[in-house]
Amino acid sequence: MNDGAAAPAIVRARPVLITGGAGFIGSNLADRLAGEGQDVLVYDALARPGVEENLAWLKQRHPRRVSAIVADVCNEPALRESTRHAVAVFHFAAQVAVTTSMTDPRADFDVNLRGTFALLEALRRRETKPPLIFASTNKVYGDLADIALVEEDGMHVPLDRSARLHGVGEDRPLSFHTPYGCSKGAADQYVLDYARSYGLPSAVLRMSCIYGRRQKGTEDQGWLAHFVLRALAGEPITLYGDGKQVRDVLDVDDAVEAYVRMWRRIDRVAGRAFNLGGGPANAVSLRQAVTHIGAVLGRRPALRFDAWRPGDQRWFVADTRAVAAALDLDAPLGWRQGLARLVAWFAAEQPGRTTVRAAS
Fold first, then answer.
1. pTM value > 0.85
2. Selected catalytic residue, list 43, 180, 211, 259
3. Domains held by the chain: number
């Protein structure tokens, strides 16, 4: 963690601040906003391998709109300076892996909770408080072990009909598991309380699995992109557990649309937390995802298996009815078409490596 001085930047007068703005979702959001004529200030420690490429890409595409501060989210002077004139703040800066939180819980706490608290305090002290949209996680609901599951068609699915039809709603009790779940869950609650206690116009999106271009997928985070990269390289994909666990997945363009609309409708949604994911229509098992990647590539990736990992949910599907209604969202891109598009994007980024079938 770098608490030193931030790298100098030419910051526009009234930018949108995106912490973690060189990351996967942050860079896609920055590209969207800059393309619409909005000045954007990217605040990022560039700690995750590869994200410096995203920042370079943003600056090349939008040299007059995108500026950057390279600093850690716990660097309070840099954070205060970056928030001074921001017209809105999107907070993506985070330690994102459950596995990393298990091995280094202190660093996880510092980034996810202490950094969020520092950001909230910087915004609270402003005379005019800008909107804050916080990127939370479905891990705030715990491992969902109390939801009875059955196996159908090679997938874990709930016995309860309502859960199967709609997914997990925001009324689900919070249950923080693993240091990552605790740090993100506590930050989630701090953001909501600063809306309640201090009138900060803030809201929370509890995300399921977001995927898409510019994602630096690893075994620990960004599993769909990781699967695609392994398959393109002809390397085996490791599934932890039985591979029948189910997630609802959402293309990054649909996620960005939700974030933009939440900012523009903050007067209606401040103080609320919403689930954001693909919903039941985009629920897919890990095995299904691998099979579809193989169909797109024309060759089935090799698989190997390892033990379940701590806090891993056998099934999670977000009930997205509340966010769709509040933000008037269209139906999201289907996972098959989106995954085929992701394979094509990664293949194009690795010229001469492989060809893929058209998205379908």
1. yes
2. 180
3. 1
